[in-house]
UniProtKB/TrEMBL annotation:
Source species: Clostridium autoethanogenum
Protein origin, superkingdom: Bacteria
Coiled-coil residue spans: none
Pfam families per the UniProt record, alphabetical: Flavodoxin_4
The protein, known as: Flavodoxin-like domain-containing protein
Upper lineage: Bacteria, Bacillati, Bacillota, Clostridia, Eubacteriales
Molecular function GO labels: FMN binding; oxidoreductase activity, acting on NAD(P)H
Length: 170
């Protein structure tokens, strides 16, 4: 996908060409708050082919069952070629102390060896073993510059200035 095509589907302003790629789970999650920030890197969402349905509690219970079973849902195709990127920023909400099942699919289907992986995680309590799990799966990649973005209901606990500093460090 070239820049003009990407601009048509991106929620973010595109900057100068670079070698960083941001992959994040989208849906009913805390990540939507981050979508309002201008990030000058290539951003593409990924999502399961079959969306979760029901009210909040139903979705939480579906997520728990899927994490407990190690379920990896089919995800929609990427709109970019990962070979074109040296750095991949992976965002996920925390589901039952680890990354979302759609992220599990992504991490199991794509070889990230030799890449720099920068995870950002959002949560409403505790990240559990999320980062340990990411490092375990991405063992042939450099996992660095991690950020934990906590929320209390729909309010971000981390200060906006700390988030902006992290974004600037990228």
């Amino acid at each position: 996908m070239d820049v003009k095509e990407l601009e048509k589907v991106s929620d973010f302003t595109l900057g100068e060409e670079n070698t960083t790629y941001v992959k994040y789970f989208t849906g009913k999650s805390y990540l939507s708050v981050l979508n309002t920030k201008e990030v000058v890197i290539c951003n593409v969402t990924f999502e399961p082919v079959k969306s979760y349905t029901g009210d909040y509690n139903s979705v939480v219970e579906q997520g728990k069952r899927k994490v407990d079973r190690g379920f990896k849902p089919e995800i929609k195709p990427l709109l970019v070629n990962l070979e074109d990127y040296d750095t991949i920023i992976i965002g996920t909400l925390v589901w039952w102390y680890t990354y979302a099942s759609a992220v599990a699919t992504f991490l199991s289907e794509y070889d990230l060896s030799g890449k720099t992986i920068i995870p950002f995680v959002t949560n409403g309590g505790w990240i559990g073993h999320t980062l340990k799990d990411i490092k375990k799966v991405c063992k042939n990649a450099a996992v660095t510059n991690v950020i934990d973005i906590g929320f209390n209901t729909d309010k971000m606990v981390m200060s906006e200035s700390n988030l902006e500093k992290w974004i600037a460090s990228l």
